[in-house]
Write a structure and sequence with these properties.
single chain, alpha+beta, Aminoglycoside 3'-phosphotransferase, Chain: A, domain 2, 2 domains, five-stranded antiparallel beta sheet, two-stranded antiparallel sheet, 9 helices, 13 strands, binds adenosine-5'-diphosphate
Length: 288
């Protein structure tokens, strides 16, 4: 691996002098390294199992977020392929939280969400965790969310036997009635798309950074609902977020239907331990 990383560094620096390479744990999908040369510190991500498009999607997302100049995310130095292994080199982020970090995270994320795309969805196939996420651009959020997000996971789960019987019937019925809860024309916010507590970190001077995005254009409440699913965001975050971009009065009514997508993704990735919260949500919204 060291040889490959050195090869990558030679494309970034004239005559790189390596000080350190250390493996970084935490990600479930990629191999990651802290790399330091005399000139720079880098975070290097490699993925032996996915095509280069997997890391290209992450790079494009980071660049889209960065263009808005609202919330910090790692600068991408390069995407390359070495010995057929895709490799993404980005800025190394390190820092300590201050009392303002989470307030800033809320404000900056809300500012990101105030930036709009032209349509809902995304212009090309993406990934959520290790799963492919088919995409298209739509003028109607309800249709995109139903057909590409929920139905996409339903079909995958059905094919793998994870969604069957009552779970399958309820989910099908839910999709038929989804317009009762999901709006067609919210703001077309730029969303991080995979914002659980492990996908933000603190950088220099306590600045919050978001990492590992799965970008789309859609209802900001979809993002907020996911932040609430597994925790990792405190009251300061929600207070500052909503002071910049308030949630609608009906947020609580649809929140679980937005969390449902992420739970289905987890069911399809990790199995039945996510089945019971899914069934609870389905029972709440749909009777057979
Ligand atoms: P994966 O895509 O495999 O989930 P992540 O992007 O989440 O990988 O990264 C794995 C871990 O590496 C994270 O939990 C985080 O602690 C750390 N990390 C991610 N990006 C950076 C970065 N730019 N600088 C420093 N550490 C990072």
């Amino acid at each position: 691996m060291k040889r490959r990383i050195m090869q990558a560094l030679r494309q970034l620096e004239q005559n790189p002098k390596l000080r350190s390479i250390q493996s970084v744990s935490g990600g479930d999908i990629n191999e990651a390294f802290f790399v330091e040369t005399d000139l720079q510190q880098y975070f290097v991500k490699l993925n032996k199992k996915q095509p280069i498009d997997f890391l290209r999607f992450e790079m494009d997302g980071l660049r889209k977020i960065s263009e808005t100049q609202t919330i910090a995310c790692p600068h991408v130095y390069a995407l390359m392929e070495i010995d057929d292994i895709p490799l993404l080199v980005m800025e190394w982020i390190e820092g300590r939280k201050t009392k303002d970090t989470e307030t800033q995270l809320g404000e900056n994320l809300a500012a990101l969400h105030l930036h709009e795309g032209i349509h809902f969805g995304y212009e090309k196939q993406g990934y959520i965790g290790g799963l492919k996420q088919e995409n298209a651009l739509y003028d109607d959020w309800l249709t995109y969310y139903r057909d590409f997000r929920l139905k996409g996971q339903l079909e995958r789960g059905r094919a793998e036997g994870r969604i069957a019987n009552d779970r399958e019937r309820r989910l099908e019925k839910l999709l038929e009635q989804l317009e009762r809860w999901i709006p067609s024309h919210p703001k077309k916010s730029i969303l991080h798309g995979d914002l659980w507590g492990g996908n933000w970190m603190t950088g220099p001077e306590g600045t919050p950074f978001i990492i590992d995005p799965s970008v789309l254009y859609g209802d900001h409440e979809f993002e907020l609902a996911f932040t609430e699913l597994f925790g990792g965001f405190n009251d300061d975050f929600y207070q500052s977020y909503t002071s910049v971009f308030p949630l609608s009065d009906t947020y609580e009514e649809r929140k679980e239907l937005y969390q449902l997508y992420y739970l289905l993704v987890h069911l399809n990735l990790f199995g039945e331990s996510y089945g019971s919260p899914i069934d609870q949500i389905l029972k709440k919204y749909v009777s057979l």
